[in-house]
Amino acid sequence: MPKQVPALPGIEPGSLPFSRVVEANGFVFLAGQVGDRPGGEGPVPGGIEPETRAMLDNVERLLRAVGLGLASVVKATVYLRDFDEFAAMNAVYREYFPVEPPTRATVGVTRLASDYRVEIEVVAAR
Question: How far apart are CA 97 and CA 10, in angstroms?
Fold first, then answer.
């Protein structure tokens, strides 16, 4: 039975109609994460590299809040607005998953919310 994780320390609940983290059958599912500015006022400035870093920092923070880390990630899906930025995104991604990275799909999209360049959703195993 899926279990929503209702309160995460230091993480404000969102006003959107979805759960940020759900746990089911030994897996932890994170909703799509973006590289937002503190306070959620849109993407961090500077392009794809800082945005990817902020996005993965958000993933790591959510995982830590439920007692896991990036090493627990078994599946990632990356949504990329401009495939010309794939190499730059991938270089930052490799910093966060340097050995035995999770399986991953990278999907090109025409638009992400609030003009973000990149979004990721992950599944982690407990």
Answer: 24
Domain extent for 84: 17-125
8-state DSSP, 22: E
CATH code at 94?
3.30.1330.40
Residue matched to tokens 């990356």: 78
Rg (CA), the chain: 14
Residue closest to 78 by CA, chosen among 63, 94, 98: 94
pLDDT tens, 114-123? 889 999 999 9
pTM: 0.87
pLDDT at residue number 31: 93
Alpha carbon 109 to chain centroid distance? 16
Tell whether 2 is covered by a domain: no
Number of domains in the chain: 1
